[in-house]
Amino acid sequence: MKAIAQDEGSFREAARALLAQGVRPESVAWQDGPQLSLALDGPPPSASPPGASGVVRVPKAFAALLEKMVCHRDPTRWDLLYRVLYRLAHGERDLLQQPLDPDVRRLELMQKAIARDVRHVHAFVRFRLVGEAYLAWHRPEHRVLRLAAPFFATRFPGMKWSIVTPDESSHSDGNTLRYGEGAPRPEGEDAFEDLWRTYYSSIFNPSRLNLPLLAQKLPMHHRDTLPEARLIPLLARNAGRRVDRMLRPEAGAAAPFLPRDRSLASLAEAARGCTACPLCEPATQTVFGEGPGTAKLVLVGEQPGDQEDRGGRPFIGPAGDVLDDALKKAGIVRGEIYLTNAVKHFKFEPRGKLRLHQRPSARDVAACRPWVEAELLTLQPRAVVALGATAGQALLGPGFKLGPFRGKPQEGTLVPVIIPTWHPAAILRAGLAAQAQQMREELIADLRTALARSRAA
Ligand code: URA
Description:
The chain is of the alpha/beta class. It is 43% helix and 13% strand. Strand 10 (348-351) and strand 11 form a beta hairpin. It starts with a strand and ends with a helix.
């Protein structure tokens, strides 16, 4: 006996008739039919129908999977579906709860293939604007357009779009979703694809390039319909060089992130989005400077530490406690000065649950320098304290060493005077108590010098 089905409706109709006549699965040869029709032929069935009334009750779960299974291109899906339906109707009502059953296992795998294909439609459809509507041509592996298209209707309400596949097409006028004939892939390409490629190159992150994963996520099957797919070999070839550049950022790399308006508030806001160097990736947030715009004394540290990274403010951890104590002893009110760092993101090495401080490199400092320069240009302080060698290098040049210059006021290019001194964390690290005490006193003395210079007319 031969049965033809093309979609859910025709399968239901044919299967219902076959079941009502008690036709066993092995007696039916199912075919993918071009027309929506029930086509039963062959000798009349000999077996008796299930149940006295001949009415077959189908579990809801079967109805739900039927909707998906009809999209699969495997022509044997009808045989499988009818066999499962027959078994459900003949005493195996909990068949679908038997994952080890070969038929159920096959159903499961085919449904997974359908779900994956729907995800691919959502991910790989590329619309182009033609007139006032967005058009896309896509070739799904299975006939999943009707499962996939409602997503776009929800995502783009009010938008006119069409997705055409070789089997059928879907169209939205902004309100209603309709389906129509399919069409072969249109010839030629347009500016939209160029735009898409430019966009893709700019968001492409070479440090995240994982070719095997990409191959898995961007199946061969879809590559010729994705404008960016052609770029991948080139981007992959250059990835090493680009990662190198990212890991070794150029001097002044932060400059393009500076806002036009240079108020402290605008600078702080813009710095939040700075991705000029790789330190931004693992850090929790940018830690910008803080203090009043009227401050005449500025203190520059090295970089935020673990607590500053979490709290978003400079010098709020253990080094901050040492600094607060020294400030108090030097007669400086923290709320009246401006505190910042040479590097605005926490650089660390993960070690289990710990994040171990890593000293920023000369390149990190140079990349971040536009921020500290902008802060100083906006504030126009009378004196700046460089806390430690890194701050000194940011303000006085990469060759700066603290030893010979500590406590000696230096003429700055951006500010009248820079006073290099100990970093509070260096005091915490000092091995001997006497050494720490001496450094503490020197820090306080240097802060007093700076305070005096900041008050000088
Ligand atoms: N060390 C610094 O240099 N800056 C901070 O903000 C905290 C610790």
